[in-house]
Amino acid sequence: MKHIHAALALLFLNFTGTGQTKYSLKEAIDYATANSYTVKSLEIDHRLATAQKGEQTAKALPQINGNVDYLHYQQIQKNILENGVGLVNRTDIPKGTVIPTQLGLPNQLIPTVTGSQVIFDQSYFTSIHAAKVYQDLSEKNVTRSKIDVAVAVTRAYYAVLVNQEQLKYLDANLARLDSSYAQAKAQYAEGIIRIIDLDRIEVSYNNLKEERNRISRMVDLSQSLLRFQMSISDRSTLVLTDSLSESLLQDVSVTAVEKVSYINRVEYSILETQTLLRKMDTRNAQASRYPRLSAIGLIGYNPGASQFANLSQSNRWIQYSYLGLRLQVPIFNGLLAKYKVQQKHLEEDRIKLYRGQLERSIDLEVDQALNNLQNSMESLKTQRRNLQLAEKNLKLFKAESSEGLVTNLEVTVAEADLKQAQTNYYNALYNALVSKTEYQKAMGTLQ
Fold first, then answer.
1. Are 442 and 373 in contact (CB under 8 A)?
2. 401 or 27: which carries more pLDDT confidence?
3. Angle between helices 266-287 and 336-402 in degrees, nearest 10
4. Is the Cβ–Cβ distance between 139 and 300 less than 8 Å?
5. Which terminal residue of the chain has fewer beta carbons within 10 Å of its beta carbon, N or C?
6. How many angstroms separate the Cα of 362 from the Cα of each of 67, 143, 150, 187, 368?
7. Average pLDDT over residues 77-81
8. Rg from Cα positions in the chain
9. Does position 397 have pLDDT exceeding 50, yes or no?
10. What's the gap between Cα 216 and its chain centre?
11. Considering the chain, what percentage of its residues have pLDDT values greater than 90?
12. How far, in Å, CA of 410 to CA of 412, rounded?
């Protein structure tokens, strides 16, 4: 029984005690897009657009309605007849005498079923097309939001990796400097070095510890930022399975300048769809000038009785029906259609102007992104070489120090140079990775 309890406790700790979740960059992006508030909201908009499209399509189906009217006449309408005209030809009164005649009964029950079917309606056809275009627009908005999420998560993910690598190297540097400090204290006790040399090493050691604490807090902060970008609400530690390496930049080419294809940019694609929507709005405004043709039909009964209870008698229920066509022709609407169409044309002109502005903006964004990528790749190359030199110099100084050719202070300076070179290298690597992502976004090739 004790073994069972121990196993259950260990299982519980594995699921709840570690609080860690592993993510590659792709998994982090997938998780973020699946849980992003903005993406979810836009996906709801997309489903709404799909439902609106269905609503417009439903208008093409027959529209059938049932109605039941009950009428009780307080004063029954009378028809005016004249004696000697038509069916009335009485001899007891003069010809032309007005004779009010009641034909209806005070209680009328009118059940009917009416139906209509659109045959031709230009505004309806335009609305159907516009609903499809709006559905496409909402889908592109979702795509744009996912791209923004991917860029934000990528930046935060690489920031965590950079800070973790810096922390790892700082720990190694701190261990080396701690050893140097202990050795310097022994040398000072033997009178080999001066107190000022020992103090300078201690200053370097204290600064390095402070730097290590600062980077440790930066790791926590970058983890918090990544959790925020991924829409993770708890404080669990994220374990990142991707490593920080220059191999992530193997496919980067900064020698050939590519011409951006505007249609690859989701913003441009959205603008194209918005342009099409504006054209649909113009056609819809123009459609008010076109006639509408519909098929109509009705079937019903019109029983009447002087007493309400007699309305249920079957001999009073006589069916009538009709089928027909209804043509509605606009004749004059006070120039309303003219000014509506004029407004829609002006909106089309405005969106054409914005297209040109967007193209120039994309060109500038690509130039800036390429420039940043080229600069960051050159900086990475320089900082890689500086790191190699710093590592080489420290190795030489340590070898000479063991032979008594250089002081511990010189070794400490070399270690400080290595720390700075490491910091510069990983900052340059981070900038190169982010610049690559920004360039892909600018070119419209970020997946």
1. no
2. 27
3. 170
4. no
5. N
6. 59, 18, 19, 64, 10
7. 85
8. 42
9. yes
10. 34
11. 45
12. 5
Measured CA to CA, the distance from residue 7 to residue 16 in angstroms comes to 14
Count Cα neighbours of 111 within 13 Å in the Cβ-side half-sphere.
Answer: 8
Per-residue tokens: 142: 């979702």
- pTM comes to 0.77
CB 201 within 8 A of CB 178: no
Query: Which residues have a Cβ under 8 Å from the Cβ of 21 and sit 6 or more positions away?
Result: 236, 238, 239
Say yes or no to pLDDT of 85 above 70.
yes
Domains of the chain, residue spans: 20-61+122-290+334-443, 68-120+296-329
User: Hey, what are 347's tokens?
Assistant: 């909106």
**CA 201 to chain CA mean position, Å:** 54
Residue whose tokens read 């009485």: 90
Give residue 322's identity as a one-letter amino acid code.
Y
8-17, 114-123, 243-252, 314-323, range with the lowest pLDDT: 8-17
Reading the block at residue 33, the tokens are 């897009």
Strand pairing category for 319-328 and 107-120: unpaired
Which tokens sit at 81?
Answer: 């007849």
> Is 304 in a helix, a strand, or coil?
strand
The predicted pLDDT at position 387 comes to 92
Distance separating alpha carbons of residues 119 and 128, to the nearest angstrom: 14
**C-alpha–C-alpha distance, residues 142 and 22, integer Å:** 26
Phi and psi at residue 300, to the nearest 5°? -165, -175
Element (DSSP H or E) covering residue 301:
strand 292-301
Q: Taking Cα atoms as reference points, which of 53, 111, 101 lies closest to residue 81?
A: 101
Which residues, at least 6 apart from 310, have a Cβ–Cβ distance to it below 8 Å?
107, 316
Q: Which of 293, 321, 317 is nearest to 304 (CA)?
A: 317
- Paired tokens of 431: 């900038």
One of 3.40.980.10, 1.20.1600.10, 3.40.50.10750, 3.90.1150.10 is the CATH number of 20-61+122-290+334-443, namely 1.20.1600.10
